[in-house]
Amino acid sequence: MALDEGPRSCLLRVRHRLEQDMKPSYIMDHMITDGVLTVDEEEKIRTRATRKDQAAALLELMLRKDNRTYISFYNALIKETYDDLASLLHADLPRTSPTAYKSFPDGYTPYVRTVLSEGGVPQRPVVFVSRPELLNRVREKLYQLQKEPGWVTIFGMAGSGKSVLAAEAARYHSLIEECFPGGIHWLSIGQLDKPDLLVKIQSLCFRLEQELDPQLHHRPPNSLDEAKERMRFLMLRRYPRSLLILDDIWDTSVLKAFDIQCRILLTTRNRSLVDSVSGAKYEVEVASGLDEKKGLEILALYTNRKMHGLPEEARSIVKECKGSPLVVSLIGALLKEKPDRWHYYLRQLQQKQFKRIRKSSSYDYDALDQAMAASIEVLPEEHRELYKDFTVLEKDIKVPAKVLSILWDLPIEEVEDILEEFANKSLLFMDTNNKPYLYYLHDLQLDFLIDGC
Ligand SMILES: Nc1ncnc2c1ncn2[C@@H]1O[C@H](COP(=O)(O)OP(=O)(O)OP(=O)(O)O)[C@@H](O)[C@H]1O
Ligand SMILES: [Mg+2]
């Protein structure tokens, strides 16, 4: 397949500028990795005397290649921070045709890579396992947003893999092409106050405006109201078919700032947040942990072994981690450093020595106990104390509200409201197969509470 007419004339138009400014050796490394340039071709280009001659030869070769090469070249410019050069090519980025992306069975085409890297969507973690069933559920909901604007919420407890799942859901060619050709824009939120939120929205507006016209400099919005209006204009008029991903939302006031009739995917530990905003709403719960096979797969990938070559402790480690992707990864990362400590880490997990494990970890994520502490911190004072009472529960025991009503000495209706709040914040699980409903904690939550928060 030849290079389309648009990108071809663009290359011809801007070739002098590219020849002048870029360093082809770095660019070619990326293109080889993407499989669009062979080592022989690279060597031939390197024999040219000057950097400028090499650049000219690379461009000459690209004109004889295809759309994938153009996209890979564009990505390489971005990676090497030639943003100004990349912006010259941007308007003519080809859409890869359906036949072209058949060779990328998971839908992760160069086009997707470009769209996601422009929108600041995080890459997969170094060690990654697929969760196809959950992923399909999220994508199905995102397809619904094609018809009308609205919200898709991914909720679940700390470290259950919500953020990884949200990024993965967007990593899909036909979804972007059919529903969000205007791009995917990622915003990490977390726990922040109003001034910080304003700064986040300002930088998003800046990013979106720059993409439209790098020469124009707009004054940043200087209040949340103004920011909301600016966002509304941008999303409705300039990026009507795009998706905003808001990662890790804690507070309804954040959602209200984005209540502008656009298409949003959000991750949160708090299920009830979207009650306060308008529009179509869909949700996906990340309830169950990873199954044993996926847990083992993570350990195998970290320790560079085949699944069947894992030591006998591996199964028990996965079991002790209760399927939490965060905790399995934490242990996997430790074992990568100290491959002879399978037995030692298993013993520590069994003895609930999370704190010691965390201390010896170089893992760049706050361990589960910190993540849990943050969730409890946002409860109202009096509910925090009630939550700590769950330490009297036995592991794997589910209780009806009546038991807690006695424990807390509160009327059953009030207890039900409190339990609902805990469940909505992913601090408690509800078994609705029974009447009356039964409530229970994830083992890791119980361990954390018993450990003393
Ligand atoms: N599919 C996966 N494959 C491999 N590891 C994963 C996967 N999903 C999550 N993890 C691991 O678990 C960690 C936590 O995942 P993630 O950040 O998505 O959790 P979260 O639910 O967003 O947590 P929080 O509520 O704290 O924001 C990741 O940093 C990664 O190491
Ligand atoms: Mg997250």
TrEMBL record:
Keywords: Apoptosis, Repeat. GO terms for cellular component: cytosol. This is Apoptotic peptidase activating factor 1. It comes from Neogobius melanostomus (round goby). Residues 3-92 form the CARD domain. GO terms for molecular function: ADP binding. The lineage of its organism: Eukaryota, Metazoa, Chordata, Craniata, Vertebrata. Pfam families: CARD, NB-ARC, WHD_APAF1. One of its GO terms (biological process) is apoptotic process. InterPro entries: Apaf_helical, CARD, DEATH-like_dom_sf, NB-ARC, P-loop_NTPase, WH-like_DNA-bd_sf, WHD_APAF1. The keyword Repeat applies.
